[in-house]
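From the pipeline queue, job 12 of 40. The input is one protein chain; the requested action is below.

Action: predict structure.
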Amino acid sequence: MLQRVQHKYPAVRTFHTDIVSLALASTSLDAIFMNGMYGNIADKPAACGNAARMLRSGGRLVVSHPEGRAFVDQLRATSDLFIESLPTKEEFELLLEPLDLKVIAYRDEPKLYLMVARKS
């Protein structure tokens, strides 16, 4: 997926790494996309804290899964991998508010999970 993004949008920087340890400069990013992987993050407060640190004022944090919550919960039930359920809107608000991130969009549909937060 990252190769497709790099090919189609060469100006976009992509990283395949643990976001907790990603050491980009503070306030250096306009957007951070976490697609299809949020449930695999072991330390979500640290991951979101580092994302908030790297985002500019007005920047967006996007957490999505193209198959939705039910798919993630099915993986949890049938896999030995570390996978947690996707957060509710209220859970995200509690996590992100202290980081100056406000949830501005949230969709939890059968085939789409999407949360967008904006940094103050």
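Job complete. The CA atoms of residues 30 and 59 lie 5 Å apart.
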